[in-house]
Design a protein that fits this description.
The protein is built from 15 helices and 12 strands. The chain has about 375 residues and is an alpha/beta fold. α1 crosses α15 and α7 packs across α10.
């Protein structure tokens, strides 16, 4: 007989520690919050070291074969864990994340009596055969923004009533500091980045340094901003060595950084260093080129009291309240991006007010507590099915 106690939530993910990124942050935050509420929450992640090994494979055919073999082994590991939980009398919900093979593991676990909830994290244009074949067998789906859900309704035909649960951040950890502490924060940031001395204002970007995230667009905006504010600093924070494609892209960007440009590639940072980077900065820029589903770093910046300048695309349209907590610009338009940044630099009072509104929105709508409670509602619904 299966126990009537609260279910064990098995999180199955393609990205987790030590990989840096939004999915890792989402999973880590959710797992920690659920444990604090009394759930057992094993996290089973596709090994990051294997993903790096795959990246070294030159042949597409060999890569496909190796990847499918690795995925099969991974799914067997997940099923073995769930079987042990079920044999011990525990109710199980598999909360799979992002990748189709994570959902596949959850769907197969239904044979063992588990329920499956799947959270989509990435934008989509066309539903793959693999994903389309799995969708009918999931108990529930979660999207991270209204715009994101609309994409999956259109491409895959999921239920238009699928839950929308934005990723949450720890608003007690990410928080603004008083103006009188700003200089110290800037000094701390200069020390942690190894830059030496940082001038202000500081325009911050956080994310994977890939073409789709818009670091190139930000670089193109530097010249116009520094014509009016020659001391402006642009910091790009995020891992720099995740794939061959990324390394080639960054080398190209480095070659385009002109002499005297204060545009720095910082690399990945610890959470404590990242918090200080937000606190030391004046504006958060996120000029993505793809249909960003949510942008967890945007919420971190909001919680830290920063005005946000982001692309008018995907889930960012509902994260950033135009003219209130930030500004939205045409994706890929570096002139419009530069003008939006300059608008805040020319009127510091407006930047401060937008940062205050950002913080209010983050606390009210995008906390970890709100995210976790919404996930619990989904779990209760699927267990009642």
């Amino acid at each position: 007989m299966i126990s009537e106690r609260r279910p064990t939530i098995v999180i199955v993910t393609n990205y987790y520690v030590p990989t840096v990124g939004g999915i890792t942050t989402y999973v880590r935050s959710l797992a920690r919050a659920l444990k604090e509420r009394g759930y057992e929450v094993p996290v089973i992640a596709f090994p990051a070291w294997f993903s790096k090994k795959e990246d070294a494979i030159q042949s597409k055919l060999v890569y496909r074969v190796v990847h499918e073999l690795a995925v099969t082994v991974f799914i067997m590991i997940v099923l073995g864990k769930i079987l042990r939980l079920r044999l011990s009398g525990k109710r199980v919900i598999v909360h799979s994340q992002s990748a189709s093979f994570c959902l596949e593991a959850g769907v197969m676990a239904r044979v063992l009596g588990a329920r499956v909830v799947h959270t989509f994290h990435s934008p989509i244009e066309e539903c793959t055969i693999r994903l389309g074949g799995l969708l009918p067998f999931a108990n529930a789906f979660v999207c991270v923004s209204e715009e994101h859900r609309a994409q999956y309704v259109k491409a895959c035909g999921i239920n238009p009533d699928a839950a929308v649960i934005p990723g949450g951040v720890d608003c007690s950890f990410f928080h603004p500091i008083p103006p009188e502490e700003k200089s110290e924060a800037v000094r701390d940031l200069a020390k942690s980045t190894g830059i030496g001395t940082l001038s202000t204002p500081i325009i911050l970007f956080v994310g994977r340094v890939i073409r789709e995230k818009g670091a190139e667009v930000l670089l193109e905006a530097v010249g116009r901003v520094t014509m009016e504010f020659p001391g402006a600093v642009f910091l790009v924070i995020g891992p720099l060595d995740q794939s061959k494609t990324q390394r080639a892209f960054i080398e190209d960007l480095r070659g385009r950084v002109g002499q005297g440009m204060r545009y720095y590639f910082v690399g990945a940072m610890t959470q404590y260093e990242l918090r200080r980077a937000y606190q030391a900065s004046d504006i958060f820029a996120f000029p993505v080129l793809w249909e960003e589903a949510s942008g967890l770093v945007v919420v971190e910046a909001m919680a830290s009291g920063l005005p946000v300048v982001a692309s008018r695309i995907g889930g960012l349209k509902s994260r950033v309240v135009e003219g209130v907590s930030g500004k939205l610009v045409e994706s890929g338009n570096s002139d419009e991006l530069a003008e939006a940044i300059l608008g805040y630099l020319r009127c510091p009072d407006k930047a401060v007010e937008a940062g205050r509104k950002s913080r209010e929105l983050a606390v009210a709508k995008y906390s970890i507590e709100t995210m976790t409670s919404a996930c619990e509602d989904v779990y209760r619904r699927v267990m009642a099915q």
